[in-house]
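Supplementary Text 2. Reproducibility record for the structural model of the 179-residue chain.

All settings were left at their defaults, and a single model was retained for analysis rather than an ensemble. We include the record here because the model underlies the residue-level annotations in Supplementary Table 4.
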Amino acid sequence: MELHIATQDREINYIHSLYVRAFPFVEQKPFREILKLQRRGLCDLYIITNEGVHCGLAVVHIVKDTALLDYFAIDEKFRGLGLGGLALDALTDHYRDRYFYIEIERIDPAADNNEQRMSRRQFYLNHGFVPCGLFARMWGVEMEILAHRRPVTWWQCRRTYCGMYQFHPRSFIKIRPIR
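Retained model, structure tokens:
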């Protein structure tokens, strides 16, 4: 498994194709906005390969001392081979000097995909992520915030979102403690 910053058109085209397939439309940012953030140095866009074959993506936003793993997916043809865990371990190692965190859909027994949500959460917990005691509601989707080894604070999350969007995202992102 190899992980490197995507720079070639064919890599970016593959990432865009997987991005559209892997994430629900309501959770997708316009891809051109991700590319703009990459050009401005606020985002790392990674392609994951295995034996030279494209097999995944990772989008990491960097703001001050935080790194947000905003999107992470392994192509459906390569799932179950351990590549996701290897890629995640490489990412957490690369960003070890930052507060590295993710947002995952909140566990909800009433959700159609609750089993998938629980499995995803356990995957991250198995790779050293810890609950932060925070939820973020983004574009109407309730997300739990997990961080690698050390929790992020409400202020760090807020600062990250403000840095990513270059304005206060109060209108579409609400961060609150878990009660």
